[in-house]
């Protein structure tokens, strides 16, 4: 027996009120809880959904909310897959190749040290803009929080900071080092574009999935 729209909405509201604030983790939990309750009903439990759900949560709530590594792993796996696919879409590819072309062209007319500093700062500036946009959407437009996206953003910032730190002490006179900087910076900017695409898709998916339950 499949749960009704009202049952799914009830589970969603319950988990949200239980401080499961990240929508990607909550969706994984909803699928898990719904599947478990459907299995219980399929085994012959004829009680009303509310009583089955209440009993299930009494027995499993602590484990469900505190031992959620499997849900985090599932959301991370899905996010990596989504961003990899988004990197192959035309906005990300256009960003990457346009930046490579721009940086290479500017390298012919601009002082190397100035250009490298400018190129090296672009991904960090882009990440700050992305972070501010995400924060504004959370505070003023009620965007749902995405756990996997926030962790990826932290990894992105730390990873590029590490690259930027190493790059700062590299040899400015090596052409190979210049092109490595251009490629990494272009890839970092393309990754930001891919992250934006994934955020938009995830928000649309959530709205399409739950708007009919409101």
Q: Which features does this protein show?
A:
single chain, 214 residues, mainly alpha, 2 domains, 8 helices, 82% helix, elongated
- What is the CA-based Rg, rounded? 23 Å
Distance N to C terminus:
22 Å
Strand residues, percent: under 5%
Shape: elongated
Q: What characterizes the major β-sheet? A: none
Can you tell me the residue ranges where pLDDT is under 50 for at least 5 consecutive residues?
none
Query: Which whole number gives the mean pLDDT?
Result: 78
Determine the structural class based on helices, strands and strand pairing. Answer: mainly alpha
Describe this structure in words.
With 214 residues, this protein is mainly alpha-helical. It folds into two domains: 5-67; 74-210. Helices cover 82% and strands 0% of the residues. It is built from eight helices and no strands. Helix 5 runs antiparallel to helix 8 and helix 6 (112-140) packs antiparallel against helix 7. The longest helix has 36 residues, at 175-210. The mean pLDDT is 78.
Short summary of the structure?
Helices cover 82% and strands 0% of the residues. It is mainly α. It has two domains: 5-67; 74-210.
